[in-house]
Amino acid sequence: MKQLRECPFSGELFKPKRSNQKFASSKNRIAYYNQQYRQKRLPLERINQKLFYNYSILEIALDSKQKVLVSKDFLIGRGYNFDLLTHLIELGNYPCFGLYNIRITRLDNNQFQIQKDADTDI
Question: Is-above-0.85 flag for pTM?
Fold first, then answer.
């Protein structure tokens, strides 16, 4: 006689058809793992939304050009968050900030050079 088990997703008691069956149904199994995945992904979604917002501001500044100069005031006025970036790049003596396939180099007198890398397209 098989022992009753409790489904980790729904909490219902069920009689397993196999010795390794954990869930009352395949729907419960799928829903359980989807829920686990969503919980892991949620913090990344929030960060990615902010990164994408910064990326959109840089795309507006580039206006289909490969390279432009913009002021810090322009970026601040658009709502750019200088704390969010995806990577750092060292080019000669200039540290560059990377946001996906865009490089941001701080120049003198509050100017920034924004350059889209040609070899990668997002």
Answer: no
